[in-house]
Amino acid sequence: MGLDLYHLIPSVKIDESFDYFTTDEFDENPEFLYQYQHLIAEVEDFEEDLEILVFPNLATKLLVLSTQKSYSEMPNLIGELTHLQEQINQIAIDNSFIDKEPAILKIADNLHIGNTSKDVYYYSVSYEAAPTKKKVLFYSEKGYQRKGMNAKFYDDFVNDKLYFDKDSVVKAYSYLDPTWGDSKTELQQHFKENFINNFIEGESIFLISW
């Protein structure tokens, strides 16, 4: 976590670069994207798999969820697996896993609660997501700054928004505020060299992320 400032420009994909914008991130400035349509590429988008937990009873569910915190966000059911097919199918449909055969795994576990332990079992019903294609625009970096802005900067700029105009970059310069022990003169010089002096409208992108 923390503030990161980037000066980016569109580029061809280099080696195994995973630095890109999806084309829908340019919905507010389609003219910019149109200039670089020759650089638009396709990548595979791997959606998250779906896993449904099936517990034989409420006591087992509460015990497992109390010891496996990562399970708390997963959909779950209680009862016999053979009697829950309709509910499982509906969860799969609701999550866009239609006409997919799940992998079913019986999990036997020995859970430790304080000084005692208990043997339990439950089922994992998982669906694997098929990769889809998405259109992207790769980019390279012309400038970077970590932190170095005052508190008002967060009110006047938007997180994860793409800025295409030099005026916004010049405005950002006025919020520079070095962390303790750093030189403001050096920070200002770095920002000018990496964000203002080399910023070209129609080519440059100013990205703020916190």
Describe this structure in words.
The chain is of the alpha+beta class and 210 residues long. It folds into two domains: 119 residues, no CATH class; 78 residues, no CATH class. The chain is 24% helix and 33% strand. Strands 1, 2, 3, 8, 9 and 10 form a six-stranded antiparallel β-sheet that branches. A four-stranded mixed β-sheet has the order 5-4-7-6. α5 packs antiparallel against α6. The longest helix has 13 residues. It is elongated. The protein starts with a strand and ends with a strand.
Distance between the termini: 6 Å
The backbone outline, from C-alpha atoms, is elongated
Order of helices and strands: EEHEEHEHEEEHEHHE
Mean pLDDT: 90
Percentage of residues assigned to helices:
10-25%
Number of self-contained structural domains: 2
Instruction: Give the biggest beta sheet.
Output: 6 strands, antiparallel
Q: Could you tell me the strand content as a percent range?
A: 25-35%
Low-confidence stretches: none
Query: Which oligomeric form is depicted?
Result: single chain
Which class of secondary structure composition applies to the elements?
alpha+beta
Number of alpha- plus pi-helical segments:
6
Work out the radius of gyration: 25 Å
What's the count of strands?
Answer: 10
